[in-house]
Amino acid sequence: MKNILVTGGAGFIGSNYINYILNERDDYFIVNLDKLTYAGNLENLKSSQANKNYHFIKGDIANSDLVNFIFEKFNIKYVVNFAAESHVDRSISGSEIFYRTNVIGTNILLETARKFEVEKFLQISTDEVYGSLGKEGLFSENTPLSPNSPYASSKAAADMMALAFHHTFGMPVVVTRCSNNYGPFQFPEKLIPLMILNSLNNKKLPIYGDGLNVRDWIYVIDHNKAINLVLEKGNAGEVYNIGASNEMKNIEIVKLILKYLNKPENLIQYVKDRPGHDRRYAIDSTKIKNELGWMPEFSFEKAIEKTIDWYLQNKNWWERIINGEYQKYYETQYKF
Ligand code: NAD
Ligand code: DAU
């Protein structure tokens, strides 16, 4: 059995990863440590809950005693660290928790993993650590880190800390830097689910700035497959970029969603830009393709429709969210 600690496994990417991997592997035992912040939702894991190879623990990665207890009790040999505060806008309204979880929390995980001599520590990082691109070029693993938001800077700190633990102590650390994900169970503060739900509810669709900022989109299952490949075959001390070469302007995505849902474009409302808004992200994933044989399998055209359909079919999931404390966040963030 491979005993794996997955942190943040009740969030969007982590829950998709656990559901996916428990279906694929019967020699993985997964302990999911999640604080269940506003973004954590155990409903995402309904299909894994009863699996004998799955165990959930509610708790904070920054709680050193708890993390020690988990490593000892479950004989943890692998770590996949998804746990994070993940939303850029929230890091602009209040950054402290971003550093506590993303930096201090990662430090506690790394120190504990070092003590228990884990076989692999996978730090889930992001392409946002590279900063912003102009019209041309792609982020490669050698692009210097230049994070611009409090969120991105906290992820860059964690990412570099993980690599420093490899360099200094020889720890088997690997880092992945992925582009923007979309798919089922994504919390509706993020662009795609926000625009789907607002369209369905005939609410205004707030587009920051001129709507021409570019993101490079990947379906969450393609990301999950890459993560597992890196966990199993990635070389210690290496960084792997993950992206599906699918650059889109925000306005293009919003129009596509409106069209699919047969809603009018006059729902679009341009609003004040995000402070420090990165203009363009685009990822070069040649390394993971050439060295580990990964390829994205989902086309954006099909997977975005699949995602919209998922939100159409899972109204109970998102209604509970948008009727809860999310309302307060939404009013403060958008003021309409
Ligand atoms: P998310 O916000 O949906 O989920 C984060 C999860 O972490 C939640 O379940 C939350 O309860 C948990 N968590 C937060 N603080 C915690 C703490 N102190 N201790 C334990 N659990 C805690 O995030 P996501 O979009 O699923 O992102 C997962 C990871 O992937 C993050 O590290 C993020 O930086 C990275 N990432 C995200 C994207 C993306 O497009 N969403 C792209 C690249 C990388
Ligand atoms: O690139 C990877 C990153 O992608 C991850 O590390 C982050 O965790 C994840 O949140 C995401 O960050 P972004 O800031 O790119 O994603 P977000 O969905 O917040 O915004 C995508 C784009 O849409 C961005 O240009 C801002 C814009 N936007 C977003 C919102 C929420 C709007 O125009 N209006 C909105 O209301």
Report the C-alpha radius of gyration, rounded. 19 Å
CATH architecture of the largest domain: 3-Layer(aba) Sandwich
Query: Helix tally?
Result: 12
What is the CA-CA span between the terminal residues? 51 Å
Largest sheet entry: 7 strands, parallel
Strand content: 15-25%
The low-pLDDT segments are none
Strand tally: 12
Query: Looking at this structure, what is the CATH superfamily of the largest domain?
Result: NAD(P)-binding Rossmann-like Domain
Structural class: alpha/beta
What molecules are bound to this protein?
Answer: nicotinamide-adenine-dinucleotide, 2'deoxy-thymidine-5'-diphospho-alpha-D-glucose
Protein architecture, described:
With 336 residues, the protein is α/β, with parallel strands linked by helices. It folds into two domains: 2-181 and 217-242, NAD(P)-binding Rossmann-like Domain (Rossmann fold, 3-Layer(aba) Sandwich), CATH 3.40.50.720; 184-215 and 248-277 and 301-327, UDP-galactose 4-epimerase, domain 1, CATH 3.90.25.10. Helices cover 43% and strands 18% of the residues. The protein has twelve helices and twelve strands. The strands form three sheets. A seven-stranded parallel beta sheet has the order 3-2-1-4-5-6-10, with helices on both faces. The chain has a three-stranded mixed beta sheet with strand order 7-9-11. Strands 8-12 form a two-stranded parallel sheet. Strand 1 (2-7), helix 1 and strand 2 (28-34) form a beta-alpha-beta unit. The radius of gyration is 19 Å and the shape is globular. The mean pLDDT is 98. The protein binds nicotinamide-adenine-dinucleotide and 2'deoxy-thymidine-5'-diphospho-alpha-D-glucose.
